[in-house]
Design goal:
The structure is a single chain. The protein is an alpha/beta fold and about 260 residues long. The protein folds into two domains: about 180 residues, Rossmann fold, CATH 3.40.50.150; about 60 residues, Helicase, Ruva Protein, domain 3. The chain has ten helices and nine strands. The chain has a seven-stranded mixed sheet. A two-stranded antiparallel ribbon has the order 1-8. Helix 2 links the parallel strand 2 and strand 3. The radius of gyration is 20 Å and the shape is elongated. The N and C termini lie far apart (about 55 Å). About 5% of the residues have low confidence.
Length: about 260
């Protein structure tokens, strides 16, 4: 039996009821699938039962590759690589449905990479069905004026609609993690705020949320040199704290920052 690697953040999902729930989130018959970190292939087996058109899996751990090849033969195309280094657009001309029991240590990096690199005119995926550490999931779906609201929720909700499907108990995994997990379902928005350089949202939110309990006056002045015109245009109260500004305000701040630098 292959043991999970702690260094790769591996926890293999073994609960058949949860596996079935995951594949029932959306109809995938005749769809092109990408699974991130199939591990021992438990979810892979359930996905194959739904008869996808084509099925890619990305697995970084070389120990698992031969086992996956023996188990699934030519039913899946296995890519032995790091998902953070892959260009997902090269897999297929079809829009992908992506599944992932993401390693806890790099889950936010993966999601942020995908959002930052999205082509506004042609999303490479139809849906994302991803599992995160519960506290990370709560940061992703958080709303303004809540303690979990911050950089991750602002970035994630920029181009994606997000729904929590369920929470998952540690006993559903081997080895058991010390924390709960959550399954999230992502769908691309048809309309979203246009920003030329997504990394500007990262910059703006990083500066504002570096000191989330302090007023926004200091980061605003740092970025905009005390520009009162922008402050008035966005009707900003500089005595507010970062979690008090809604999503649209952060997107507008990123746009104003772009305009100043263009």
């Amino acid at each position: 039996m292959i043991k999970a690697k702690k260094s790769l953040g591996q926890n293999f999902l073994i609960d058949d009821k949860i596996l079935e729930k995951i594949v029932d989130v959306i109809d995938i018959k005749d769809k092109t699938i990408l699974e991130i970190g199939p591990g021992t292939g438990n979810l892979t087996s359930f996905i194959l039962k739904k008869k996808p058109k084509k099925f890619f899996v990305v697995e970084k751990d070389e120990r698992l590759i031969s086992s996956l090849k023996k188990k699934f033969l030519n039913q899946i195309e296995i890519i032995n690589d790091d998902i953070l280094k892959i260009n997902e657009k090269k897999f297929s001309k079809d829009k992908l449905i992506v599944y992932g029991n993401l390693p806890y240590n790099i889950s936010t990096q993966i999601l942020c990479k995908w959002i930052i690199n999205l082509d506004d005119n042609n999303f490479w995926f139809q849906n994302l069905i991803l599992m995160f550490q519960k506290e990370v999931a709560e940061r992703i779906i958080a709303n303004v004026n809540t303690s979990n609201y911050g950089r991750l929720s602002i970035l994630a909700k920029w181009k994606l609609d997000i729904k929590r499907i369920c929470d998952i108990n540690p006993s559903s995994f081997s080895p058991k993690p010390k924390i709960e997990s959550s399954l999230l379902f992502f769908t691309p928005k048809k309309k979203f705020f246009k920003i030329n350089k997504p990394k500007n949202i990262e910059l703006i939110t990083r500066l504002f949320f570096n000191h989330r309990r302090k007023m926004i006056k200091k980061p605003f002045n740092q970025l905009f040199k005390g520009n009162t015109e922008i402050q008035k245009k966005l009707m900003l109260n500089l005595n507010l704290r970062p979690q008090n500004l809604d999503f649209a305000t952060y997107y507008n701040l990123a746009k104003e920052y772009e305009n100043l630098r263009s």
